Amino acid sequence: MSGLADPTIAILLTGMLVGMSASLLGSFLVLRGNSMLADAISHSILFGIALAWLLTGQTSGPVQIVGAALSGVLAVYLIETLTRTRRLRDDAAIGLVFPALFSAGVILINVFARDVHLDEHTVLLGEIGFVWLDTLVLGGIEVPRAMLAMAVMLMLDAAFVLAFYKALKLATFDPDLARALGLAPGLIFYVHLSLLSGTAVAAFDAVGVVLFITFVVVPPATAYLLTRRLPSMILLAMALAAASAPLGYALAVWLDVSIGGAMALATGPFLLLAYAWRRWRAGRQKRSTQPVQSPSAPA
Amino acid sequence: MGLLADYTLQNVMLGAALIGVISGVLGAFAVLRRQSLLGDALAHAALPGVCIGFMLAGAREMGSIMGGALFTGVVAALLMVALTRNTRLKTDAALAATLSLGFALGVVLLTWIQRRSGASQAGLDSFLFGQAAATTRADLYPMMILVGVALVGVALLWKPLKLMTFDPIFAAVTGLPVQWLERLLTAMIALAVVTGLQMVGVVLMTAMIIAPGAAARQWCGSLLGMVILSALLGALAGIGGGLVSALAPGLSTGPVVVLLATLLALLSLLLAPRRGLIPAWWRRRHRRSHTSTDRILQTLYDLAREHGDWHYRVEQGAVDAYHGMITEPQLSALADRGLVVPAQHMPDEGRHWQLTETGVAHAAEYAQRRRRRFGNGA
Amino acid sequence: MNRIGEGLGQPHEPDLALHVEDLTVSYGDRPALWDIDLNIPPGVLAGVIGPNGAGKSTLLKAILGLVPLSAGHVRLFGHPYAAQRRRVGYVPQRSSVDWDFPTTAVDVVTMGLYGRMGWLRWPGRRERDQALRALEEVGMDALADRQISELSGGQQQRVFIARALIQQPDILLLDEPMAGVDATTERSIIDILGRLRREGRTIIVVHHDLQTVQRYFDWLVFLNVRVIAAGPIDSVYTARNLRRTYGGQVALLDEGRQRNAGPENDGPAG
């Protein structure tokens, strides 16, 4: 084994690709105040994965990714529909929709997929340790399938963000103005969430659907505490997510624990450090402004 | 009957009923306080606690596992509060971050235990999705204690909790320790989550908190009624799901219970007499058939009079907005009687209607009859 | 009356900056705006006043196509909003966005150009220079590179106004620009608006402070679900119009008022 199919390289690169694409899209979700939609989407795609597997007998491949991603979009649509009836708040709608779709997915697997490749624990937790086993040859190079899928998703995500950066930013900051200027924030929102679902499906082999949300939310939240510009927030979030992959891998090898879990967990210390730094800065600022009598009082 | 005497099945049903009651009662508060997803975060964050409890006890011992889960749940809640209160992070991001990091830590600890203690791993795995069949009589006792503590707590603090749920600002003004009550309520929701770990599992426990409360909300106007109904619906979903999964081995309990609870919530959303969507639709239809075509004609007449033009073209959307319903059938009926005619106005507008000469005369006569019947406006 | 069959390309009331006819907007069961007719000529500084829930913000949103119209139409200089996007500037309520967003004052101002830049092009030096000039107009050029959360409420409001100014709008719509700003900012905002009016632009301001209405505006719209009165301030600013606007619920149709009002509940509106 050598090159991209080398186990360590395959695992590390796949983890980094998952982290970078998740936190690229996640930055906008965190800024919009919709982080829990990541939770909803990542749980709901289990239904799509199970259904796509039932229909095609495969869990990976472009058709499966698109099909399963649709169930993430379906979850968002159902949440919006329930909220629109005005019988439920949006938090209750989220909490009603995704467990139901997730349960439906688990039951489909329970009933139809006994003792086969697909089981709910793999879908839940992922098995990044095996990504190097499933490869295909591309231009004479052996490439792990999961890594290739993630690379394609990262390119799609990055192309979307780069091309529609202005519209995405304005739809996040001020959707009313975006609509008034003709920049279709509703459409942007759905494309963004469709890509997020697709990325989650491509990533489930590696980190599982529940751990995916860690990469969507934690590195962007950390970067949000440390930066003051959107581009630097996005780049820092992606860098932190990418750094978490080797850190987590080292932890997993050292303690002999789940690699996906350790990679997700490795994003945590960054958040705690950022939190501590902000608290320290806030404390210092308070001390240095104390001599001035209540600066917020009206002049 | 032999089925109900089955020892395991008795355990399952009793346990599921306990979970339904506690999560129903506390879920009612969570739903009303717009904290539905707090249960989600607490449940995911309970997984590392399950593992810690297991490691401390050295075996699958329910008491210490529940204690561990309660501990990490509370730590997660504290972390969440710290993140939102001391930084500019919003609630949703704090929730999602604690939830996912707690779960990641749980997965790491779970695999750590599994790769060391080999055979005994099976027991812990079931905490992900719940496995009712594994419930023993000994597992039930700690659950009963937790449910008892939570119910007594809610009963003792009923009035302050009620006030805090409906009007937290007024509650604070009257001198209630709102912050402490909030912490207490969070801790009790953590109790509910911990109770359900064994049978429903950490991933899906959130639905047990939300679905019964959301269902009960549709039927009841009062908090007491809502809490009681929520507990009953929770118990119903729990017992039903427990039964199904015990009878069909291989089906995880959690998903079955959750689908039942969601079904109850959806049925409530559709059928509840006052807030339900179908009764509301029925009332609109009913009102439609009772809103006479004469009333619609009168609206057209009044609008025409206000605009000082008997042939003023009224857009159908305006008539709909005025009556709060779709008035197309009545307007078509009026057109059939030759009292109004459809018209067009601006190209970016919908369909318009215009009174005919007969329509004006008819409406004027109707208006006069009404005036005579109701007195002249005073 | 020969307007039937007019295409959307044909101007309709082109001499009016704003022409609203038969406008009804409905949220759920109740109309938020009912059967509104409103004409505002070019070059005036108009105030829109009315009690809470009168539909003031909804009126601005209806003009901008942000809420669906149940009935009626809106024309700006004779054309629908979609054809006039570039001539209209909008300053939403300051509280409508999250000021913790990681961006700078000059970047927020640049957002005003996003519509005309097309979907794909990124803002560059030219856009930044334009944004700096707009910030200069509102006296904020020194704080151009500040993170927006570090600005005071008044400074944030001026950034919002600069974002609308960068569009060089012929019509400017502002939603409560004076809410929660200090006296200095309020004065400088009204100075800016006065200058724009002298340049011949039309300005429509949702306003809540009755004390300052006469000083600030030369045109006034009394709104409470219906338009109670509208016109030059000298002719419409009367105690009667104030009472009718703020005196409680306004009946949608006169017939309805006659029907509902008995001798004992005949309010001041009757």
Automatic annotation (TrEMBL), chain A:
<feature type="transmembrane region" description="Helical">
    <location>
        <begin position="37"/>
        <end position="55"/>
    </location>
</feature>
<keyword id="KW-1133">Transmembrane helix</keyword>
<keyword id="KW-1003">Cell membrane</keyword>
<dbReference type="InterPro" id="IPR001626">
    <property type="entry name" value="ABC_TroCD"/>
</dbReference>
<feature type="transmembrane region" description="Helical">
    <location>
        <begin position="146"/>
        <end position="165"/>
    </location>
</feature>
<protein>
    <submittedName>
        <fullName>Metal ABC transporter permease</fullName>
    </submittedName>
</protein>
<feature type="transmembrane region" description="Helical">
    <location>
        <begin position="201"/>
        <end position="226"/>
    </location>
</feature>
<feature type="transmembrane region" description="Helical">
    <location>
        <begin position="233"/>
        <end position="252"/>
    </location>
</feature>
<feature type="transmembrane region" description="Helical">
    <location>
        <begin position="258"/>
        <end position="277"/>
    </location>
</feature>
<feature type="transmembrane region" description="Helical">
    <location>
        <begin position="12"/>
        <end position="30"/>
    </location>
</feature>
<feature type="transmembrane region" description="Helical">
    <location>
        <begin position="61"/>
        <end position="80"/>
    </location>
</feature>
<keyword id="KW-0813">Transport</keyword>
<comment type="similarity">
    <text>Belongs to the ABC-3 integral membrane protein family.</text>
</comment>
<keyword id="KW-0812">Transmembrane</keyword>
<feature type="transmembrane region" description="Helical">
    <location>
        <begin position="92"/>
        <end position="113"/>
    </location>
</feature>
<dbReference type="InterPro" id="IPR037294">
    <property type="entry name" value="ABC_BtuC-like"/>
</dbReference>
<keyword id="KW-0472">Membrane</keyword>
<feature type="transmembrane region" description="Helical">
    <location>
        <begin position="177"/>
        <end position="195"/>
    </location>
</feature>
<dbReference type="Pfam" id="PF00950">
    <property type="entry name" value="ABC-3"/>
</dbReference>
Automatic annotation (TrEMBL), chain C:
<protein>
    <submittedName>
        <fullName>Metal ABC transporter ATP-binding protein</fullName>
    </submittedName>
</protein>
<dbReference type="InterPro" id="IPR003439">
    <property type="entry name" value="ABC_transporter-like_ATP-bd"/>
</dbReference>
<dbReference type="InterPro" id="IPR017871">
    <property type="entry name" value="ABC_transporter-like_CS"/>
</dbReference>
<dbReference type="GO" id="GO:0005524">
    <property type="term" value="F:ATP binding"/>
</dbReference>
<dbReference type="InterPro" id="IPR050153">
    <property type="entry name" value="Metal_Ion_Import_ABC"/>
</dbReference>
<keyword id="KW-0813">Transport</keyword>
<dbReference type="InterPro" id="IPR003593">
    <property type="entry name" value="AAA+_ATPase"/>
</dbReference>
<dbReference type="InterPro" id="IPR027417">
    <property type="entry name" value="P-loop_NTPase"/>
</dbReference>
<keyword id="KW-0067">ATP-binding</keyword>
<keyword id="KW-0547">Nucleotide-binding</keyword>
<comment type="similarity">
    <text>Belongs to the ABC transporter superfamily.</text>
</comment>
<dbReference type="Pfam" id="PF00005">
    <property type="entry name" value="ABC_tran"/>
</dbReference>
<feature type="domain" description="ABC transporter">
    <location>
        <begin position="18"/>
        <end position="250"/>
    </location>
</feature>
